[in-house]
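User: Can you fold this complex?
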Amino acid sequence: MPELPEVETVANGVNERIRGERIKSVWLSRYKEPFKTPPDPMSEALTGSRIDLVHRIGKHIVFDLSQNKKPLQWIVHLGMTGRLLVSSPDVPVPSHTHAVLTLSSGRELRFVDARRFGRLALHSTSGSEPSAPFQGPGREPLTISADDFAALFRHRKLPIKAALLNQKLLHGVGNIYADESLFRAGIRPTRIAGRLTRVQLDKLHAALQDILRKAISLGGSSVSDYVDADGVAGFFQLEHRVYMRTGQPCLVCETPIRRTLLAGRGTHYCPQCQR
Ligand SMILES: [Zn+2]
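Assistant: Here's the predicted assembly.
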């Protein structure tokens, strides 16, 4: 499952390749799962639009489009196995392709998703029922201030790991970066969020932002010729200090790393370094 840094890498890669292009035609598959907006209105709205910017919000890839100066957003969520590919038309279309956008350069933007947990939707910011630009459900972990970050967890009676994964609080933080940031901050994942001190929350805030930025910078350099969420998944693995290191010695104190289940997710921590 792509996490925030992978999604950011894909969004940046797509943006570099196709920003400024116009969508000439649209083909969508007959499967209903990927389409949060029905295929016909989606295809109609996308056709003829100009791609002004592609960026990440939470774990969503957001295409800022304009059609006759009217703004519109196309929202892509990669789900478990979704991929966005920028391809020359002579490259065979992979199986499990659910969307093909033919661009003014002749290249194609393809959305491929074998397990169909990915989602495509339109977000209208003009027209008869205009809404605010797409925001996602929670706060943005990369840019949230230390004050706002601390405020998110005040009075919360759930474990800090579960709070980090709650997309309504912070959007885009997944299992790997929750475990890794808690290790770097020296906080046991089971600690009740509302009982952490401000000093601990400040450490966690700094650790989370630092680790996400590092992952993005590593991911950015690992994707060269094409954009492929699968191709970058796990690119951060060399840097893992606790995630999936059950039983291996802690890199700081050599105590074996433990694994427990928390909020239904495998959770990795050092019982010595994290209190
Ligand atoms: Zn340790």
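The chain is about 30% helix and 25% strand. The radius of gyration is 20 Å.
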